[in-house]
Amino acid sequence: MATTTKSIFRKQANEDGTIPQIYIEESDMSIWIQSFHGHSSIIRYIAIYDTHISIGWGDTTYWYRGADTAKVLSKLLVTGSLGKVANYVKQNATVTHKFVRDSESQEMVRA
Fold first, then answer.
1. DSSP, residue by residue, 48-108
2. Contact predicate 30/49, CB 8 Å
3. How far is Cα 47 from Cα 27, in angstroms, rounded to an integer?
4. CA distance 85 to 108
């Protein structure tokens, strides 16, 4: 399985020297878009699979169906914002699953 990783959309360094970035990783199964070092305030990642799109929104993970993958990726290229991409998916797709962190075990459970 081939995997390709790229760092894009770098912002200026934070006071502590870390650089806010978005990483894109493409594999045979998905396209994984992840935020590091404060690039996005609430969106941890967006994963695009053949059957759904998964978004880590704060401490909750949502699965969506029905969004046009090409439009989702073009939103990222045009805006450079995971928040705007997540809002696009939210407005143009249907939530099929919601996962939250269990307060005792800290495992993700279906809500």
1. EESS-EEEEETTEEEEEES--HHHHHHHHHHH--HHHHHHHHHHHSEEEEEEEE-TTT--E
2. yes
3. 11
4. 23
- Which of 77, 97, 99, 98 is CA-nearest to residue 88? 77
Name the token pair of 7.
């760092």
What's the predicted TM-score (pTM) here? 0.79
Through-space distance between the first and last CA atoms of the chain, rounded to whole angstroms:
32
Q: Which residues pair with 78 in a beta bridge?
A: none
- For residue range 54-67, list pLDDT tens digits in order: 999 888 999 999 99
* Strand-pair partners of 30: 49
